[in-house]
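Tutorial handout. Part one gives the primary structure; part two gives the three-dimensional structure as tokens.
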Amino acid sequence: MCPIATRSVVVLMLCALTAGGCRFTLLSNALFEPDSIADRDAASLAATDGSSTAKPSPTTIPIELVFVRFGEQDLQLRDDLWGLVDEQVIDAALRRTLAANGMRAGVVTGPLPSEFADRFRPRQPEINTSDLPESSFERPAVVRRILKLLPGRNSEVVAASVLTELVLLEHDGEGVHGGTYHDASTHFSLRAWPAADGRVRIDLAPTIKHGPQERSWVGEDGVFRLESGQRKHVMGQLQLHTTIPLDSMLIVGSYGDAASTVGDAFFRDRMHSQSDLRLLAIRPLSHGIDPLFEQPTGAETADR
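Part two.
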């Protein structure tokens, strides 16, 4: 068949397919880097064809979060509990900065004694924290959540409800700086990674969202995307970095008397002349194994 006839046949076939409603996809041999870990997970699942050589999807890290609310005169949780907490795992300079901002943190290794463990158990079925009443005194004493985090991916943990006005004093090591935030809510930015020895590495940064909803470009994983949300004030000087073994927990709470500190903003509920305090406990629910240190399966060993 001559070239002109060949081109005519191809054109006729394309027209027929287009009229039938078919979609055309341009294929190439180029490798595209997925936008995120979630996209890589989807790409891995899409590539599964039933053969044993398909790569597994990324493993999530299950994390238990427990918020415990108690009265300011409750000495068991306000003072006695901290006798069981190892605060030395936190860098000394960071401990001083935390204390200056009304916060303290440490790790409890192993299970808590029963009299303390009972205070961390919910008294009613688990509920959605978005359904909680506005008044802190109507809230349950213990709220428990389970998160399944992708390694290194940020998850926001709401610490307190929205305040019309939040007056905050921050100590940055050089001095005290004050600020007023409108329509503000307190959050923790939480990230987790598997460690080589089976422990889980936790990063926790106090963050304040405030102001009206705005649209802005956010860069991540080499791409930009348009997001809508409030402005964020991330307190990097108070970011915690710690590695937690299984059956242990990171505990974060307030320190010192009532004031306009970061610890008060995140861990104190005020109502009239009374106030409630809160603790946040973070506990890994399974061993975190860095994929780099995992033992290869038989199929993988054969491939190598």
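Part three, for discussion. The mean pLDDT is 76. Residues 61-127+135-284 form one domain.
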